């Protein structure tokens, strides 16, 4: 058990090491790369917990709800064009607490692996690549922060569908097809925005 907890602690430390560096990277503007990366890492970690059976679908839904609340708060902070140090600190504290709860579940919950039929590793990889593509668009200026918020909301909706489909331990071919179709539509919209070659100044 000590070894298990130590491993989880090390994973948590590595996962959220970037949080404390965010202010130095983005003082006085609307960029929050450290916070955004931590959100992605937490989402991926929840998916990992679902796949391994350490996090139940109902627990995942509660964790994703907290994640969405943090993202909504981040968007409100960015609405005036700048996030101040206090707002950044609040976001980091909220993400730190969420990440710690995810790691606690991963370390302490009884291992109960779902059936192989519930495995969606290919879909999870697509979600991760799309999320990276959105962040790349924001950094390059081809996708505005407002557009990125809407795209990430769609991404989280797909994740919620995936969680619901996994609730009974089996993801049917029809459910997999729906997830793939939703991801394809999202990816096409992201690619269309990237091709427009705009520069970020409208959101």
Structure explained in plain terms:
The chain has 203 residues and is an all-alpha fold. 73% of the residues lie in helices and 0% in strands. The protein contains 8 helices and no strands. The chain has helices at 2-15, 22-25, 33-52, 57-78, 85-108, 121-140, 145-166, 173-195. Residues 1-28 have low confidence and may be disordered.
Rough outline: flat
Estimated helix fraction: over 70%
Largest sheet: none
Cα(first) to Cα(last) distance is 48 Å
Number of strands: 0
SSE string, helices as H and strands as E: HHHHHHHH
Content of β-strand = under 5%
What number is the mean pLDDT? 76
Uncertain stretches: 1-28
Structural class label:
mainly alpha
What is the radius of gyration? 17 Å
Count of alpha/pi helices: 8
Topology of helices and strands:
Blueprint: H1 2-15, H2 22-25, H3 33-52, H4 57-78, H5 85-108, H6 121-140, H7 145-166, H8 173-195
Helix pairs in contact: 1-5, 3-4, 3-5, 3-6, 4-5, 4-7, 6-7, 6-8, 7-8
Descriptive labels:
203 residues; mainly alpha; flat
What is shown here, in short?
The chain is mainly alpha-helical. It has 8 helices and no strands.
């Amino acid at each position: 058990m000590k070894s298990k907890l130590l491993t989880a602690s090390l994973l948590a430390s590595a996962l959220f090491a970037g949080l404390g560096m965010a202010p130095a990277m983005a003082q006085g503007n609307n960029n929050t790369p450290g916070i955004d990366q931590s959100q992605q890492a937490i989402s991926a970690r929840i998916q990992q917990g679902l796949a391994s059976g350490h996090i139940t679908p109902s627990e995942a839904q509660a964790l994703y709800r907290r994640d969405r609340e943090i993202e909504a708060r981040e968007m409100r902070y960015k609405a005036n064009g700048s996030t101040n140090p206090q707002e950044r600190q609040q976001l980091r504290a909220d993400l730190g607490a969420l990440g710690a709860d995810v790691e606690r579940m991963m370390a302490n919950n009884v291992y109960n692996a779902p059936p192989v039929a519930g495995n969606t590793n290919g879909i999870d990889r697509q979600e991760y690549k799309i999320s990276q593509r959105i962040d790349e668009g924001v950094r390059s200026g081809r996708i505005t922060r407002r557009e990125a918020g809407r795209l990430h909301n769609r991404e989280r909706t797909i994740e919620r569908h995936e969680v619901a489909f996994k609730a009974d331990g089996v993801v049917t071919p029809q459910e997999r097809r729906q997830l793939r179709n939703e991801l394809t539509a999202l990816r096409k919209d992201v690619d269309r925005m990237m091709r427009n070659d705009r520069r970020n100044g409208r959101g």
